[in-house]
């Protein structure tokens, strides 16, 4: 049976964004910002009420109002710190493309700011534009070669490309207290996992999860790693926690279904594969695994329909195997 798992995504610089970039947002009220600006922009005081209201809205978790207020403030002046705040608000509202454009404009006004390039890279990473994200992280590192947020971000790009050795090389350049930050530990764990060092990944993820017990991605990753270590009870506990934290994530149900399958709880596993499909209808592995289990439970027609759906999505090997054995031919 197919046993691929949906591991968590790498952490880009986004999880350090509050530490690196919100500096500019929180200092807007002080009319300074954290980033270098051109003289014409820096000479204009940031005292507009819209800007103050934008910061307040952001701090209160109202990203839409924050966007509106930052845009109002930007009508009076185009300042990198205002653009940075607007980009942060866009990210909070899950608009990474708008955030990327805004951060890129801010970086064009203050090209010597590693923080702005890093924020642009983070937004591009969130928008799945990894090539452009890498360019921004590289720009940040040209300004500040030891910038931990940019190094984390570039490591994330390498992890997406499944180049874990390069990711570890980036992360190894982070020094001091930043080297022990949760984001660094998390990405190191993913790199270890990609390299097949499952126990090392489990140890690092455990450290991360203790610091961030409410991070569903960490709970999911721990569940996957423990499954691969055949610790099924531990895997299920972490995946239960991940699902409780984010019940709309289809890959969490898929991973838990894989655990239940190993525990021979086939009906419960089928239910979780079905939940995974509800959220991720193109998840071929869920159809294949559910089909295999339905064959075991003698639900032949439903099993063949699952394998046919997987084939329609591009994965035909399992269906062809059953057809070669004389099964499934009567249902299509």
Task: Write structural notes for this entry.
By secondary structure, the protein is mainly alpha-helical. The protein has a domain at 1-168: Serine Threonine Protein Phosphatase 5, Tetratricopeptide repeat (Alpha Horseshoe), CATH 1.25.40.10. The protein has 20 helices and no strands. It has helices spanning 17-20, 22-26, 39-42, 49-59, 63-76, 80-92, 96-109, 114-126, 130-143, 148-160, 164-171, 182-194, 198-211, 216-228, 232-245, 250-262, 266-279, 284-296, 300-312, 317-324. α8 (114-126) runs parallel beside α10 (148-160). The longest helix is centred in the first third of the chain and has 14 residues, at 63-76. Mean pLDDT is 85; it is low at 13-46.
Which key phrases capture this entry?
Serine Threonine Protein Phosphatase 5, Tetratricopeptide repeat; 332 residues; mainly alpha; single chain
Radius of gyration: 23 Å
Strand content: under 5%
CATH architecture of the domain at 1-168: Alpha Horseshoe
Poorly predicted spans: 13-46
CATH topology of the domain at 1-168: Serine Threonine Protein Phosphatase 5, Tetratricopeptide repeat
CATH class of the domain at 1-168: Mainly Alpha
Q: Order of helices and strands, N to C?
A: HHHHHHHHHHHHHHHHHHHH
Outline type: elongated
Number of helices: 20
Structural class: mainly alpha
Distance between the termini: 23 Å
Average the pLDDT over all residues and give the rounded result: 85
Helix content: 55-70%
Biggest sheet record: none
Let me know the number of strands: 0
The CATH superfamily of the domain at 1-168 is: Tetratricopeptide repeat domain
């Amino acid at each position: 049976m197919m046993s691929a798992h949906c591991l968590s995504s790498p952490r880009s610089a986004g999880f350090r964004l509050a530490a690196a970039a919100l500096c500019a947002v929180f200092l807007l009220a002080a009319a300074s910002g954290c980033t270098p600006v051109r003289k014409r922009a820096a000479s204009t005081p940031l005292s507009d009420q819209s800007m103050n209201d934008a910061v307040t809205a952001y701090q209160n978790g109202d990203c839409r109002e924050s966007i509106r207020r930052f845009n109002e403030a930007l009508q009076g002046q185009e300042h990198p710190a205002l653009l940075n705040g607007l980009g942060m608000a866009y990210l909070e509202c899950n608009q990474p493309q708008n955030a990327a454009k805004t951060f890129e404009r801010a970086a064009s006004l203050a090209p010597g700011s590693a923080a702005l390039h890093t924020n642009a890279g983070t937004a591009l990473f969130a928008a799945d534009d990894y090539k452009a994200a890498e360019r921004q992280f590289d720009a940040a590192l040209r300004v500040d070669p030891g910038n931990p947020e940019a190094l984390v971000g570039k490591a994330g790009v390498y992890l997406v490309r499944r180049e874990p050795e390069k990711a570890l090389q980036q992360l190894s350049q982070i020094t001091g207290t930043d080297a022990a930050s949760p984001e660094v530990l998390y990405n190191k764990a993913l790199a270890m996992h990609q390299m097949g060092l499952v126990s090392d990944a489990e140890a690092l993820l455990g450290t991360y999860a203790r610091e961030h017990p409410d991070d569903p991605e960490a709970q999911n990753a721990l569940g996957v790693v423990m499954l691969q270590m055949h610790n099924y009870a531990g895997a299920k506990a972490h995946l239960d926690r991940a699902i409780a934290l984010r019940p709309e994530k289809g890959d969490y149900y898929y991973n838990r279904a894989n655990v239940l399958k190993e525990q021979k709880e086939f009906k419960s596993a089928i239910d979780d594969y079905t939940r995974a499909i509800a959220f991720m209808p193109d998840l071929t592995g869920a159809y294949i695994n559910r089909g295999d289990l339905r064959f075991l439970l003698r639900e032949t027609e439903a099993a063949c329909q699952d394998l046919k759906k997987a084939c329609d999505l591009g994965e035909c090997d399992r269906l062809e195997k059953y057809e070669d054995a004389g099964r499934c031919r009567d249902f299509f």
